[in-house]
Design brief:
Blueprint: E1 6-16, H1 19-29, E2 33-34, E3 49-54, E4 57-63, H2 64-70, E5 84-90, H3 93-102, E6 107-114, E7 119-125, E8 131-136
Parallel strand pairs: 1-4, 5-8
Antiparallel strand pairs: 1-5, 2-3, 3-4, 6-7, 7-8
């Protein structure tokens, strides 16, 4: 898959409706540390995004309404909505999007900058509906 330019598995992103309750669960119940947090900074308890360190991987929480908006989906009831996004970091989102399209994938979103996220992204679905995000960002 070298033509996709895959660099790493970036994170598991859990899509949530009640961000504060989910944040408290992952932070206080599971005891996960925040990835990008400086001492003295307020904790991002109200979202819409935060990233925890889970061993050698990242586990992020993201307000589901923002993900729906990013992929142009109507915000739906929980049972009919995305709950997880598989996020794959690639070297170049545009090249990766073309590579997966050439293999028969249909993109939900063309590559687009998400300045608030600090990324460039494209989205597609796996055969059973799992949302997959190709993302490009600097460390």
């Amino acid at each position: 898959m070298s033509d996709v330019g895959l660099l790493s598995f970036a994170q598991t992103r859990v899509l949530v409706d009640d961000f504060a309750a989910s944040y408290r669960f992952y932070r206080e119940v599971l005891g996960l540390s925040l990835k990008h947090h400086q001492p003295g900074d307020p904790e991002p308890v109200d979202g819409p995004y935060t990233c925890f360190v889970a061993g050698t991987a990242d586990l992020a929480l993201f307000q589901r309404a923002y993900m729906d908006a990013a992929i142009g989906a109507e915000h739906r009831a929980r049972g009919a909505a995305d709950g997880v996004v598989v996020v794959l970091r690639v070297a170049n989102v545009d090249a990766a999007a073309e590579a997966v399209r050439a293999r028969g994938a249909e993109l939900l979103t063309e590559p687009v900058d998400q300045p608030a996220w600090g990324t460039r992204v494209a989205h597609l679905r796996a055969p059973e509906g799992t949302l997959v995000e190709l993302c490009e960002y600097e460390d």
